[in-house]
Amino acid sequence: MATLAPTVAATAETVEVVPGVQVTKRTYSAPINEQPFFGFAAKNSEEKAADDKFVDAIVGATGSREKAFEEATKRAWIAINAGRIREAALRFNQAFLVSPEQSSVYHGFAVIAQARFNDLDAADELFRIALKQPHPVKALHADYGRFLLIAKRPRDALSVLEQAVKEAPDFGDAWTNLAWARFQNGDPVAACTAAEEAAKHRPSNNSMGDLTAVRNVAQCK
Asked: Phi/psi at 111 (nearest 5 deg)?
């Protein structure tokens, strides 16, 4: 997938996307509804009315704003796991319209920024915001730790992933990522211990290759 460079002002401009939450304004060469926060585009009265109509419709269909948010993010994560990044961005923008303060909005946009636009600075900022917002999903620390490994920051990843397995000890992918972090920090024995835990907790198909690879390089028995 081609990567698209973000556009950021020389002096980074921040936008308050919800009271108390400031995000650096970044735009990309993509349709605005496939960019985080709709590309920070200014909306006219008709577009705002259409957003309000969408929120009213999904809340009416699901019965509450909470359930509407759950439905939007459920579809977004399904799209992420299936590799449908453009669809996921649309869904997370819908979730943003429904409940812009929720952790999963920033978590999802972090994944989009890294996977679609290869913007590691944006992804890091959004992950850190997600950690502070309400109702994070159990995979948040695991996903952030994996991102830090991809960004070649294994020292930072280690503490994040140690926290991930404390919060979700049955999440095999978190243990796999922790095995890599321990190995890259010079501790192959501890890496093998994490790999053993990963194998016990049914890592995803996407993670199985990583688990096999870390067991090989760490020379696990």
From this structure: -60, -40
